[in-house]
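Customer ticket, subject: "Can you confirm the structure for Peptide deformylase?"

Message body: Hello, I'm evaluating your service for our small team and ran a test protein. I'd like someone to confirm that this is what the system normally returns, since I don't have a reference to compare against.
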Amino acid sequence: MPVQKILLYPHPILKKMCHPVAAIDRSITGLLQDLLDTMHAGPGSVGVAAPQIGVTLRVCVVDVSASRNGKENNHGLLQMINPEITKRQGAAIMREGCMSVPDYTGDVERATEITIRFMDGDGIHHEIEASGFEAVAIQHEMDHLDGMLFLDRIASLKTGLFRRKSYK
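Agent reply: Thanks for trying us out. I re-ran your input and got the following:
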């Protein structure tokens, strides 16, 4: 499948609440492949959500296994349909970036441990516990499904938002 164009802030689709997936069919498996191809093509990308490519469905992919921050603690590639966080613990502030906001990064407070339920592309239900960078990446992508960007979670735009020096 082809790499898709990433919508950039302030595109209105990025602020929309996404719809649950009713059934897994070819369009959903194709969407998952598009998300994977787009994630792998993005510089340093560890996840992409459907609204970032213009689709308002609750679908996202995350894979932190190749990232220096997630190498030691991850579940590999997660293809998540209708994901739901059922438990959150801890809190930490981490610097986040986003392909939809390519010129900035920001300090965002997120839960350090989460439990999440989702369905994969084969319709199999999963419940996993994620922590550290993987938990942050999952929460970031799930925010997209709720029409939120990391910009919406920065406590102070004056002190917590930074112009990106380079996008690698």
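A couple of notes from the result: The longest helix spans residues 26-41. The mean pLDDT is 95. Feel free to reply with more questions.
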